Amino acid sequence: MTAHTPSAVSTDPVAVAVRSIHAMADGDRAAFTPLYRPDAVDHENPVQPPSSRVPGADGFYATALWLRGAFAELRYDIHHALADGDLVAVSATMNGRHTAPIAFHTDDGSVDSVFPPTGRTFAMTQSHWFRMQDGRIVEHWANRDDLGTARQLGWIPPSPAYLFRMARAKRRALRATGPRGPASGR
């Protein structure tokens, strides 16, 4: 096993994985291309918008835009990162402020639920697993503390007023995108 060190070169699998996590918070589209193979798969995107369900850098960048669209001040603190063969594991905390609605989707891409902004901050612990091939990411999995984050943001237990705001936000999202997402994603 190899632990991440600050002196790691840019093709080091741990450095690539860590850069990919930081890119979610602030990387532009060009920053994603050298990190992901064109056939890279994100196994964590079934609840994300259809635009993020495509392989390669385009899908991962769409995920970043989805997160940034809802969470201001987005940043990741990396706690541990190590590699074993072609697998890299990263323990991190995602931090941000919920400033805009975030929509979650069903398997077919339709809007499932929308959480209107609460203005609250959160710190979500996560572990990410990457499989590397040819110095780039080819697969990604994650475990996140979604329940803890939902509590921090006031999504659960929901107040009657917040349930009303959720229903109103979902109606707006459905009117804006249709039941299956933006017209370009249908």
Automatic annotation (TrEMBL):
Matching entries from SUPFAM superfamilies are given as: NTF2-like
GO biological process annotations for this chain's record? polyketide metabolic process
Question: By its UniProt entry, which InterPro entries does this protein fall under?
Answer: Cyclase_SnoaL-like (IPR009959), NTF2-like_dom_sf (IPR032710)
A Pfam family the protein falls into: SnoaL
Q: Provide the protein name.
A: Putative ester cyclase
Q: Which organism is it from?
A: Petropleomorpha daqingensis
